[in-house]
Specification:
The protein has 184 residues and is of the alpha/beta class. The chain contains 5 helices and 9 strands. The strands form 2 sheets. Strands 5-4-3-6-7-9-8 form a 7-stranded mixed beta sheet, with helices on one face. A two-stranded antiparallel ribbon has the order 1-2.
Length: 184
């Protein structure tokens, strides 16, 4: 299954889907809405952003962000098939110099990194949302950074001290929660 980059310098180009049923690609309508929201937020949220795509699947969210002006994207994915798809998509778009692919479970990688990000996309498997790991990702946000969590539309929005849920959108079976880290 191919996924389309919606807009930006790679807009209209296709990338591979994750190739595995263990990941779920974000629907184009939801992805389009997500990036429209990001573009309309204060500061644009994407221009020169350092982006983390956790539970990356095909890497579509991080690659869309690069297409729209992000400075760099780090992809974290544990599934070997999905890792190969991400590597192929990075090569297909010619963005090797702006990307890093971490081949590990997000929880394990979190124990080894101190890198901070302006924007974090979190799209864990719906059957295994790993909320304790998801909430730890908030610690990697730069002050005023934004984290976007994709979760089943019928679920409750997880919250954490030190962050504010600034928006929450539902799209039938999928929902997006936007978290902003409070300034230090």
């Amino acid at each position: 299954m191919n996924i389309r980059i919606i807009s930006g310098i790679y807009g209209g180009r296709s990338i591979e889907g994750s190739g595995t049923n263990r990941t779920h690609p974000m629907g184009e309508r939801v992805k389009g809405s997500l990036f429209n929201i990001l573009a309309s937020t204060e500061g644009g949220q994407l221009e020169d952003a350092e982006v983390l795509d956790a539970f990356a699947g095909s890497g579509a969210l991080g690659l869309e962000a690069l297409s729209r002006g992000a400075k760099s994207a780090t992809f974290v994915e544990k599934d070997r098939i999905a890792q190969k798809v991400i590597a192929s998509n990075i090569e297909r778009l010619g963005v090797m110099d702006k990307t890093k692919l971490i081949k590990a479970p997000v929880a394990s990688w979190l124990e080894t990194t101190t890198q901070q990000f302006d924007l974090i996309f979190v799209d864990p498997p719906y059957h295994d949302p790993q909320l304790s790991t998801v909430m730890k990702l908030i610690g990697l946000l730069k002050p005023n950074g934004l984290m976007v969590l994709s979760y089943p539309g019928r679920g409750e929005v997880p919250t954490e001290l030190g962050v504010v849920v600034v928006d929450n959108r539902s799209y039938g079976d999928a929902a997006l929660a936007f978290y902003r880290r409070k300034s230090a």
